[in-house]
């Protein structure tokens, strides 16, 4: 899992909380606890994906364009981080004479692919509105 996914979810939840009002990259960065340049990078990807709209100038910023009750964490994961569960390196050597060494990479790739599919299925049941609702429940504690 990469941090861009977490930043994207946090930013979308924050925008959903803002109720159709614009939020600057500085305001989002302050809420996420990161720097505005990192927010702009993530928001650029979300804009290309159709999740946010931008307006430049005074009073500008980002605005959620999709219904937060429809956008799932799986949607955001597919846009921001798909494939990140699968490590970029795996042990073993396909040319090894050992049955373990020669097959470990293929077996582990299959395991990670199945894990990612299960995670996407789980994320598909959680919307941006659901996350915001859980945050509001924390206020009541």
Automatic annotation (TrEMBL):
InterPro entries: TR_Rrf2-type_CS, Tscrpt_reg_Rrf2, WH-like_DNA-bd_sf, WH_DNA-bd_sf. It holds the Pfam family Rrf2. This is Rrf2 family transcriptional regulator. It comes from Paenibacillus oenotherae.
